[in-house]
Inverse folding.
């Protein structure tokens, strides 16, 4: 299915006070909106994903899976600044007739949500039955539930947080240091900063997995002195992102993640979370070193109508994309019974 494009031909004001002269949003929809518009499932994607959720979240979304187009009207929109159909640093600035590159204005999670609210209005979606996302997607979903509590009925936050941590910001700054160490980033060409992007992705991958993951999947089978499996894996994954993304979008999106603070201008995080009216499921991953389980436990304690599930995953932070059968069991248990204010027993959902 091809990406659809929504064009907003008015100036789009950002939280910083700066403007984009126009805005395009790439998005996918699957299924059919029912008569009373009560079957909307809106997915907020993570850092380098795209709007084709049936492609990258197989096992949870798609024909025969929990969220399927036969029952649900599934919407996923590409985020502002990303490389897959929405206005981004490689888009042409109408004022200069040249791509923005590093002159793209800084923006925040709230700006991403503001853009998606425009798309929801365009699609005639007044109420979202289920809003969900993992990681950066969870940060967006949380913001939306605070900005428009009456629009969101059910909220699912996976491996995410209320405010990006100093630990997470340090990882992102290290990646931007790798990007800026590649002098071609400043050449203002579509493939500028490619070597830096490869190194940045290698850094990021260490936070997406963990010690146990690498010990099992990248353990040496011989007594080689060079050409280690773990080294080859880092190079492969770095180049894989270079082949499908760009350094400029990556630069800005890591800054966007750093900006996440649900309490900014709202009398603090706890006051902001207290305004959420959606029935909420918070899912944490015990082996996640980037978004530690304590961050999801905090969300659970502060959001009024919340349930918590703590899942074991061998894959660390990436577990929410891989362990989809366990996710399905957790989510189905949440919707089958009234478990708000409780910790979901994973033994009973297996």
């Amino acid at each position: 299915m091809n990406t659809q494009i929504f064009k907003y031909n008015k100036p789009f004001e950002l939280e910083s006070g700066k403007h984009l002269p126009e805005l395009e949003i790439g998005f996918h929809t699957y299924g059919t909106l029912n008569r009373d518009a009560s079957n909307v499932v809106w997915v907020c994607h993570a850092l380098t994903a795209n709007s084709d959720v049936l492609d990258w979240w197989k096992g949870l979304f798609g024909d025969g899976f929990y969220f399927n187009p036969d029952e649900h009207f599934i919407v996923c929109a590409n985020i502002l600044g990303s490389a897959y159909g929405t206005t981004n640093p490689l888009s042409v600035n109408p004022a200069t007739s040249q791509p923005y590159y590093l002159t793209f204005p800084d923006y925040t999670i709230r700006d991403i949500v503001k853009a998606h609210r425009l798309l929801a209005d365009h699609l005639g979606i007044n109420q979202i039955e289920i809003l969900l996302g993992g990681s950066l997607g969870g940060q967006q979903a949380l913001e939306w539930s605070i900005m428009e509590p009456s629009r969101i009925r059910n909220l699912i936050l996976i491996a995410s947080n209320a405010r990006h941590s100093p630990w997470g910001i340090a990882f992102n700054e290290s990646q931007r240091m790798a990007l800026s160490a590649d002098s071609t980033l400043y050449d203002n060409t579509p493939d500028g900063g490619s070597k830096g992007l490869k190194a940045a992705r290698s850094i990021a991958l260490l936070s997406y997995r963990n010690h146990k993951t690498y010990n099992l999947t990248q353990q040496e089978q011989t007594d080689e002195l060079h050409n280690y499996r773990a080294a080859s894996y880092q190079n492969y994954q770095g180049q894989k992102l270079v082949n499908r993304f760009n350094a400029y979008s990556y630069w800005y999106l890591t800054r966007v993640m750093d900006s996440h603070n649900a309490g900014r201008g709202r009398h603090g995080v706890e006051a902001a979370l207290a305004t959420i009216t959606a029935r909420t499921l918070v899912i944490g991953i015990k082996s996640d070193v980037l978004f530690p389980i304590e961050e999801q436990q905090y969300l659970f304690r502060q959001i009024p109508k919340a349930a918590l599930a703590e899942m074991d995953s061998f894959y660390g932070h990436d577990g929410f994309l891989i362990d989809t059968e366990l996710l399905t069991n957790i989510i189905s248990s949440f919707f089958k019974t009234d478990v708000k204010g409780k910790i979901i027993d994973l033994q009973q959902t297996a």
Summary: Residues 234 and 300 are 35 Å apart (CA to CA).
